[in-house]
Amino acid sequence: VDRSRSSLGEFEQAVLIALVRLRDKAYGVPIRKELSLRLSRDVSVGAVYTTLDRLEEKGLVKSRVGEPTVERGGRAKRYFEITGAGQIALDAARRIQQTLWRGLRPREVSP
Amino acid sequence: MTKEYLHVEVKHLTRKPGIDGNPGPDSLEKRAEANVRRYLGEKANRYMVERARANVDIVFRLNSRSEKDGLAAAPQSLVPSPRPHAEWLLAWFLRKAQRDGVLGDIEEEFVTDKLPTLGRRSAVLWYWGMVIKSLWPCIWAFLRRALGIALLVKKLGP
Predict the structure, then answer these.
(1) Does pLDDT of B51 surpass 70?
(2) Does B102 touch chain A (CB under 8 A)?
(3) Residues near B21 by Cβ (< 8 Å), separated by ≥ 6?
(4) Closest-CA distance of chain A to residue B154, Å
(5) pTM of the model
(6) In chain A, whose CA is at the least distance from the CA of B53?
(7) DSSP state, B1?
C-alpha cells in the first residue's frame, strides 16, 4: 500500500472505524449518527461525504448504490464498505498510536 | 410536480382534519397521486408517486399532532418545503452521486426523525442548518478539485 495515500487523519480513522462497526448497514445516516455519538459532537452530512469520497479515491473504501426510498424523496442510499487496503491502513494507524503511547500513562501526559 | 403538490399540501394544512370538507387521507393520497400523474403523464415513475403519497402522510401526521396538542390546524406548516432551494444550492458544489447521498440523508433524517419529534418549524430550521453546515466541506472539496484541474492545465499547457 502506498504510504502517502494510506496515511489517515483523525476524522478519516473515525469514519473507517464507523464502517467496520456498521458492517452492511453503513450509509450516510447511521454513519453520521455513529460519528456524532463516538466523537461527542455534531457532524455534518457534507463532512462525512467529502471524507468518504476522499477515502474512496485513495482506494480505502468502496461504495454501491442501494434502492431509492420514499423517506429520502426517491433518492438512493449509498452504502460504503471498507476495502482490504482500508483495513491495512487502519491497522497501521492503530499500531502507530500504540507505539507512540507505549510506556506512557495518560496521567504522565496531563499537566 | 412541486407546485401542484405544494398546492395540495398548503390547501389542506389550513383545514382541520375531518371538517371543512377535508376528504381524509385516502382521498388526499389519491389526489396527490393524480396530480403527479396529470403533471408528468407517462414520465411519472413509482418513486415520484410514492414521494407524493409520503408527503401527504406527513401532512396528516402534522395535523394529528396539532389536534392532539389542542392547537389550531398547524399554521406553522405553511412554511414552504425547503427541499427545492437546498437542492439548488448544493447542486453548485456537489457531483450528482454526492448530491443524492447528501440530500437523501438530510431528507431521511428530516422526515423520519426531526419532523415527528421537533415539529415542522424547528425541523425546517434543522434542515437548513444541516445544509449550511454541509456546504463548507463541499465548497472546500470543490475548490480543491478546481485548483487541481487548473494546475494540471497549466502544467500541460504551452
Answers:
(1) no
(2) yes
(3) B15
(4) 23
(5) 0.65
(6) A70
(7) -
CA distances (Å), origin A96, targets A39, A78, A91, B65, B67? 20, 31, 9, 53, 58
B97-149 per-position pLDDT tens digit:
678 888 889 988 888 888 888 887 888 889 989 988 888 888 887 787 778 77
Strand partners, B17: none
pLDDT of res. B54: 59
Q: Do A29 and B105 touch (CB under 8 A)?
A: yes
Q: What is the DSSP string of chain A?
A: --HHHH---HHHHHHHHHHHHHGGG-SHHHHHHHHHHHHTS---HHHHHHHHHHHHHTTSEEEEEEEE-TTTTTPEEEEEEE-HHHHHHHHHHHHHHHHHHTT--HHHH--
C-alpha cell at B40: 408528468
- Through-space distance between the first and last CA atoms of chain B, rounded to whole angstroms: 50
The b/e string for A12-41 (b: 16+ C-beta within 10 A; e otherwise) is: bebbbbbbeebeeebbbbebbebbeeeeee
Contact B28, B56 (CB under 8 A): yes
If you average pLDDT over residues B3-30, what whole number do you get?
Answer: 46
Yes or no, beta carbons of A50 and B106 under 8 Å apart: no
The pLDDT value given to residue B138: 80
Q: What is the pLDDT of residues B26-49, one digit of tens each?
A: 566 666 666 666 655 655 556 566
Q: ipTM higher than 0.90? A: no
- Are A73 and B51 a contacting pair at CB < 8 A? yes
